[in-house]
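Need tokens for this chain, all 174 residues.
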Amino acid sequence: PKLGYKPKDVIAGNLLGLSLQVKDYNKMAAEQNKKEADKRLQEVKKRFAGIRNSYRKLRNRYFYEDDEYIIRPARSAEEIVMEGRILHHCVGGDSYLRKHNDGQTYILMLRFAKEPEIPYITVEIERDTHRLIQWYGAHDRKPDKEHMQKWLDDYVGHLKQKDTEAKQRAQSVA
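Here are the structure tokens for all 174 residues:
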């Protein structure tokens, strides 16, 4: 693609020409990155459709909120990919998508209750035992580590209690 500068601008060190060259290159690179990002979102939407299809069922099991936080399962593969991009960590990779899609582990989104659509922490949890596999905020960091670990441990306790109550109801019906 033409970048809109003349070789003499660069050779002569024409600062205006050089700044245009960099500006044009940055614009072209951003457009290419957006095309690739959009293509990736369409690809994962098709390949990992099970994530979207299982959302309602998983929401009933994993959604929880208190005055401070909300935690819920990912709504779609595209949301998981965007979570990884926004928080600059690897959750959007195929291995996480495949495990969630196949029901081995689940990706949960933890948010501030006042900002439920803004990514804060991403959690990977084991399906059968509810064991926390990992959790990270932006740039693979653990914000407010001690407080958040305790909150997540309490959340896992809540999940296990719900499972116990569901088993007891099932036994009393049988």
